[in-house]
Design a protein that fits this description.
100 residues, mainly alpha, Methane Monooxygenase Hydroxylase, Chain G, domain 1, 3 helices
């Protein structure tokens, strides 16, 4: 894995931003446990697939939220400091992985 430009965000997340992301991830965690239970109960495959689709959508939403913040803070700061090309290249590599 390529070393990132920053060891930490250039603008730390606020407590509120952290809380929103953590709460979303906890909901996703609960959904995953729900699917485990559905499999243990030998539930209908289509019902399980619908829940998997919901989890994938929820994870993408978290990912887009983190991406938006990264662009508005980290990439912006890199552009201002003259390291924009590196930050954009790094983001494009991550977006390629994210879109798979």
């Amino acid at each position: 894995m390529k070393e990132s430009l920053h060891n930490h965000p250039s603008t730390p997340r606020s407590k509120g931003e952290q809380d929103v992301l953590i709460n979303r991830l906890k909901r996703i965690e609960g959904q995953v446990r729900g699917i485990q239970k559905m499999i243990e109960e030998d539930r209908y495959c289509v019902d399980i697939l619908i829940q998997i689709s919901a989890i994938q959508a929820a994870l993408k939403k978290v990912g887009f939220s983190v991406t938006e913040r990264h662009m508005k803070h980290c990439v912006h700061d890199a552009v201002v400091s003259g390291k924009g090309d590196e930050a954009i290249e790094e983001l494009m590599e991550v977006m390629t992985q994210f879109s798979k």
